[in-house]
Amino acid sequence: MNAINRHEQNALSRAVLEIDVNNHPGVMSHVVGLFSRRAYNVEGILCLPLDDGSRSRIWLLVNEDQRLPQMMKQVDKLEDVIGIQRHNADHAVFQNLENFFRG
Amino acid sequence: MTDKLNGAQITIRLLERQGIRTVAGIPGGAILPIYDALGQSSIIHHVLARHEQGAGFMAQGMARASGQTAVCLASSGPGATNLLTAIADAKLDSIPLVAITGQVPKAMIGTDAFQEVDTYGLSIPITKHNFLVSSAEELLEVIPRAFELAASGRPGPVLVDIPKDVQMQVIDIEEWPAPGRRQSPPEPDGWALSEAAAMINAARRPILYLGGGVVHSGASGQAVRLAEKAGLPTVMTLMGLGAMPVDHALSLGMLGMHAARYTNLALDECDLLIAVGARFDDRATGKVAAFCPQAKIIHIDIDPAELDKIKTAHIGITADVDAALLRLTPAVAENRRTQWLQRIADLKSEYPLAMPEQDNPLSHFGLIRTVAACLDDEATIATDVGQHQMWVAQAYPLRRPRQWLTSGGLGTMGFGIPAAIGAALAEPERTVVCFTGDGSILMNIQELVTAAEEGANVKIVLMNNATLGLVHQQQTLFYGERLFASQFKSTPDFVKVAQGFGIAAVDLDQAANPCAALMEAINRRGPCLIHASIDAEQKVYPMVPPGAANRDMIGA
Predict the structure, then answer these.
(1) How far is B109 from chain A (nearest CA, A)?
(2) Model confidence band, residue B2 (pLDDT cutoffs 50, 70, 90)
(3) Å from A50 to nearest chain B CA?
(4) Kindly report the CA angle at A97 between A91 and A103, in degrees rounded to 5?
(5) How far, in Å, CA of B211 to CA of B324, rounded?
(6) Closest CA of chain A from B160, distance in Å
(7) Which of A72, B99, B304, B422 could form a disulfide with B159 if both were Cys (CB 3.0 to 4.6 A apart)?
(8) Do B125 and A37 touch (CB under 8 A)?
């Protein structure tokens, strides 16, 4: 088992991140690239444009581990990220989606 | 009055308006409109590199020496991929760079067109930010923004990918945007600064730890004033060398993997570490848990993501380090710290840095010290990557910020020659010395002809041991002396190679008087290769074995 898996198994719970971004091609790559380069799995992604479409909101469901505060700082540093907030795993956004995720 | 210009002309005009006077690059199909416009510029001098990586490192050399954002250009596909190493290097060392790449026309993106590569996607993780420009109008916003981003906050590289049809799109320009400038960073938190001052005043064994951010911020003078007022022994990272003159009474030189023993031992004893513009890199800290084990930590950095990344700070301050030090210094008490400085002096005499054979110009330390003796502090010192780099970091009397250009974070062999050329182009009045090794020099040797073409005042000191020295050293020490792929069975005749590229060359091995030959080569204006054979068995000592604590150094 590598260190990354151990990290993820040690995750106490999950967290939901709410990230407001400029809406243009490439922004999602910037955000999720920060996770993938650290082998930090993203369990769920939801994204839709806001209001006039110049901005989008990305919702990420991630495992909470000790790297999460650093991850959030790195996300916040991205030029196209306007703001990032952390919620508990029981946040409503990922609930009631089961129907779309039956195998 | 309206100008009718195409995207390429707009790009060049915006570069001129940014104050750019020298760019390095290589043309190719997808960037030809920009080159056509560049050819019409009477203000910008284009340096034709022989490999795009060379162009990237020349721009880095300009930026590192001057502190100003520098520009490199490349075409699409292989042109762009060849730039990537230099861009990644700039990211890790926080060097402000704007890289402009040509791209296939928009309609052909995604079709696997000739020389098409996803430059935007490739450059995401190695740039501070990147753009794929979709119209000529957008250039008016993107180019100034690229310069603003490169220079603001923690500096870094920005890539602008411009499809060929955008370069050729003609639009009316009624008004030019203001050039992109460095944005003022937020003011440091006054409460945190006064807490920091109180911690410094209360500390018995404090150490000031200066990183590359001190150089980038222009805070060297302020850092030295703080150290002098509060009686702070001072260590520097590889990137921070020159921030305090190494022969300053409070200087402990470089810390970490190849520090003097006294430096790492002093850190082991300190009760307060004041980290300024430094990021607790593993080559500086060794085993993190054992780094400054007794110390509280004050960490000042312009990048909030650096605080608490490796070591949790007791006081973390997000600020431009010059602004923070300017406010911190008046708040600390004058302190001569006799006891602690006496302890430091004892450590220095008990565990000095061994520098044997300093008087023999054909030994590694002797060569470095002899070069230093030929020059004053106005000279700029570049290096490649390897044993020679560490020996120069240990032995060269660096005394001024931006005197020292080295690839720290990425550790890129091949950095030296093009970076030295860039530095010489940015500051033609200085002599630029590039220390290199026989491994590194071959990784961008094609730029010798660029040096010849530009008449760049670079002196390339080649320390030739016919090995990949640091690999050889690690195999010897940690891999049971199983030397593999670290010794060159064939080596070129570097003197002939240099002459073949059109630059002067001198072989100190053959010189009747090596010191005189070296002095003559350094004092003759223009590019010159100075070759010297050194002993392949020499190690960079002392050394912290990978993964070990800094107190557990081996050798010398």
Answers:
(1) 13
(2) confident
(3) 22
(4) 135
(5) 14
(6) 13
(7) B99
(8) yes
pLDDT of residue A99: 86
DSSP string spanning B326-366?
Answer: HHHHHHSPP---HHHHHHHHHHHHHSPPP-TTTT-TTSHHH
> What's the rounded Cα separation, in Å, for the pair B118 and B76?
9
The residue-averaged pLDDT of B367-377 equals 97
Size of interface A-B (CB pairs under 8 A): 29
> Is there a contact between B385 and B405 (Cβ–Cβ < 8 Å)?
no
Residues shown for chain A: 103
Instruction: Give residue ranges of B with CB < 8 Å to any A CB.
Output: 120-121, 124-125, 128-130, 132, 149, 303-305, 308-309
Contact B505, B528 (CB under 8 A): yes
**What ipTM was assigned to the predicted interfaces of this complex?**
0.91
**What one-letter code names the amino acid at A57?**
R
Q: Which residues of B touch A37 (CB under 8 A)?
A: 125
Tokens of B105: 């026309």
Nearest residue of chain A to residue B149 (CA atoms): A79
Beta partners for residue B459, in sequence order: B433, B528
Q: How far apart are CA B101 and CA B83, in angstroms?
A: 9
Structure tokens at A89: 């795993």
Residues 6+ apart with CB under 8 A from B75: B26, B27, B28, B29, B30, B31, B32, B101, B102, B115
How close A71 gets to chain B, by Cα (Å)?
A: 9
Q: Which two tokens stand for residue B285?
A: 């800290």
pLDDT in tens, B57-108: 999 999 999 999 999 999 999 999 999 999 999 999 999 999 999 999 999 9
CB B101 within 8 A of CB B80: yes
Look up the pTM and report it.
0.96
Round to whole Å and give the CA distance between B92 and B450. Answer: 26
The b/e string for B423-434 (b: 16+ C-beta within 10 A; e otherwise) is bbbbbeebbbbb
Closest residue in B to A80 (Cα–Cα): B129
**Which residue in the set B124, B149, B309 is minimally distant from A30, CB to CB?**
B124
Give the whole-angstrom CA distance, residue B145 versus residue B162: 15
Alpha carbon B331 to chain centroid, angstroms: 32
Give chain A's contact residues with B (Cβ, < 8 Å): 25-26, 29-30, 33, 37, 69-70, 73-74, 76-79
Give the tokens for residue B467: 């090995």
Task: Give pairs for B290-296: CB < 8 Å, separation 24+.
Answer: B290/B549, B290/B550, B290/B551, B291/B267, B291/B549, B291/B550, B292/B207, B292/B267, B292/B268, B293/B268, B294/B268, B294/B269, B294/B270, B295/B207, B295/B267, B295/B270, B295/B271, B296/B199, B296/B203, B296/B271, B296/B272
CB contact under 8 A, A26 and B132: yes
